[in-house]
Request: fold
Amino acid sequence: MNMSGIGKVWKVGISGGSVLEMNSIEDFKEVIIEHFRRRGCTRPQVDISEDVIKQVDLVLQDANNLLAFRIFRGIVYSAAEFRVMIDEEILRATKLTEVFDKVYIVIPDTYTDMARSVISGRILDEVGIGIIAVDEHGNVEELLVPRPTKLTRRELGKGIEEIVGDLRRRIDEIELLYNSLKTEFGVLSEKITKIERTLSMLREEVDVLKGKLSTLPTRHEIIEEIGEKTLAPVEELPSFAKNNPWLEILRKRERE
Reply:
């Protein structure tokens, strides 16, 4: 009997040949539970929050991993329609990999060819998502077996811790350097302020000296003043010094 999606009736064989009508999500869950029970999976022995449980249809546990299953509810008639709906389902499943080690998307086997053509197995393998196809006879085929994400998360967590630790050390070093530079800058700032004050005082003193120097007589004026003071006019000389040629020579030398 051909199927286009969940909602129509399938007759599915389980548990050694018994038959049930596959017309509900519960029927799919029963088939999946039976399939994984044969592989040693049991009901989970860990507490899972109610918010997370609402996002999955079934949770199982093997020896090392916690498994989640989401049953594809879409009814599509083309690969294009399937691509859109399965991408949305994969996006929801990806968020669940933060909680579960493996996340399975369960589809009717009538979508198997579409799944093989539009789904990237490499990408899903990296994020820990698998694809299961269930046919009308209750046969379960794992189209894509997911790689457990627990180790990946642990490795990522360790890597992140190392990165964070390195960043913290770098921040501490930068903070120490900043404080040291801040202190040195403060000292330099004080020195610069003192130098500026000293320069200002020196400018004032230089201006004062310039003012004083501008009022001083020149060398020529000093010599003339000295000459005038030291050599009396001829009229004031005693009679024996008047018309004395040696005194005239002395005058000329003094002026020179």
